[in-house]
Structure formats: structure tokens, C-alpha cells
Amino acid sequence: AGHGGCSVPAEGTGPPAPERVLFPPTFSVSEIKNKQRRHFMFLRWKQQQRKEKLALKKKRRKEREALGDKAPPKAIPKTIENQRVYDETTVDPNDEEVAFDEATDEFAPYFNRQTVPKILITTSDRPRGRTVRFCEQLATVIPNAHVYYRRGLALKRIIPQCIARDFTDLIVINEDRKIPNGLVLSHLPDGPTAHFRMSSVRLRKEIKRKGKEPTEHVPEVILNNFTTRLGHSIGRMFAALFPHDPQFIGRQVATFHNQRDYIFFRFHRYIFKSEKKVGIQELGPRFTLKLRSLQKGTFDSKFGEYEWIHKRREMDTSRRKFHL
């Protein structure tokens, strides 16, 4: 008996070996006691499944080609995203109430072009190297951003100084074990303040096939999939960080893409190769945000009034329910 556990018949005797392994219908790989054998059989079973799937795909493609124009439309695959539970706060673009709220909220002066964004990027107390580099790179993405490294100065004392110097937003990058892990975004002078958990931070040098350093041109901003009232507010907060008039000559785009309540940030440069083809290069940095809370007013962890707090046990009852 060999490794496969079956004897090989002598030449000219017995039936020829089948081309593929046929498992009995009630077969379960987990019943095999020997670990190596179980792993080997599992790989063969996976291989068989893959072959069957490809054969079915090929058969369907041939059927579609044979039917030509009469072929039925392709089925849309089911994903968690397109099976999303409907949220009653989803924004209708023509909703008068939403339009009124937007005309009178804290971001209205920015959207009415009465204020020009001026951002202060700061850190948790005495930041380490990676957080420092991340702040410097973030300042090259957001125009008119200034980096300040905190040394024992409380946020409560920084905010009045920011307001006095006409800063419109404050970004605080928090870290844990030398790794950036949180972002606080506070709109000045009246709020709101959003707390995000930050993950998957990649600095420029860690991005493969990255483009050259970003230029000082004002980038375009893309906000994807912020559909609910809460999502709308968060989208407006991000929009208010960038000046209104992008300089298209720079061909730079900052994207905030919301998918299943995770906000993915990417910074790209694009070039039109022809009328149909566009080439893009990632410039970096990149990171992912998850909203933890939205607070009225500026940063106040003790007495602040919260509009929304993410409570995992109460809110995450379904994998298909999203809040942004």
C-alpha cells in the first residue's frame, strides 16, 4: 500500500483506474482520523469541487453562446451589500427636510463658500515615529493642513486656540503601541465631533507600485455610498476638509468609500491614456475608518451630548444591517 492507501493492480489485470476520485455521497473528510491523510483527501476533494464548478461554468457559457440574443440576462450575484436591510433614514435627494437641514447645519458656511478650510492635524501625547510620518503624509493630502505635535497640552486647551486662529477643523491621530489606531475629527467652532477606529494604515513606502510624491494641487474628492442621514453627516464632515475648487490639472483624487460601515480612504493620481482607458497610480497613505460615535459640539469626552454611539451588542443584530 502506498501513501494513498490503495494497492496498484498488476499490468493487464483488473479494471483501469478511474480518471478522478469519486467520493460517496455521505463522505465526510472530517471522519478520517489520520491528520496527513485527512489533509490530502481534503485537497483532492477541493480540487474535484473546482473542476465541477469550471465544467458547469463552461457548459453555461456554451448554452448562452448557442442561444445568442435569446439568452436570459445574467443573474446578479448575492452579496451582503446588495442584500442590505433597508434603513428608514436613507436619504432621498429630493427630500425638502434634508435640504433644509443641510442649509442650516454647521457645514452650511463651507458649502456656501463663506469659509475656507484650514485644518490642524495633531496627535496623542508624545507620538512615536510611525504616527509622526502618517501625520506628515496626511498633511500633503489635505490642502492648508498644519501639523502640531502635542506635548502634554490637553485637547480642551487646544480647541479655543484653534478657533482663535481661524482653524475650521481639528484632526487628532491617536496611537497604541506606536501604531495609529484612532482618529477624532472635530469641526470648529461648533462641532460636531466624530470618533473613528483606525486600522490597516499603510504609509507611502509600504504601497507597491506607488506613484511619485503628491503635488500641491487641490485634489478632487469622491464620497461613495454614504446613504443614510448619519452617513450624509459623516460625508459632509469629510467634504468640509477640502477646498471647494479642485485643480484638475493636478489629476489627484481623494476617495472616501463606505462599504458595510467601513470607510476606506485612498489617494490616487490618474491619467487619460485614450478616450476609453484611464491609468491610475496610488499615492498613499491609505487607511480604514470605523465610526464609533458622533457627538454634538466640539470634543468633550465627559459632558458631551452624543448624537450616535455604536453599541455592538444592541446594533449588530444582523450582518446585513448597516448604519452609514
TrEMBL record:
Residues 117-300 form the Brix domain. InterPro entries: Brix, IMP4/RPF1. This is Ribosome production factor 1. SMART domains: Brix. It is found in: Nucleus, Nucleolus. Its main location: nucleus. The keyword rRNA processing applies. The keyword Lyase does not apply. GO terms for molecular function: rRNA primary transcript binding. One of its GO terms (biological process) is maturation of LSU-rRNA. Residues 53-75 are annotated as: Disordered. It comes from the Eukaryota. Keywords: Ribosome biogenesis, rRNA processing. It holds the Pfam family Brix. May be required for ribosome biogenesis. Residues 63-72 have a biased composition (Basic and acidic residues). One of its GO terms (cellular component) is nucleolus.
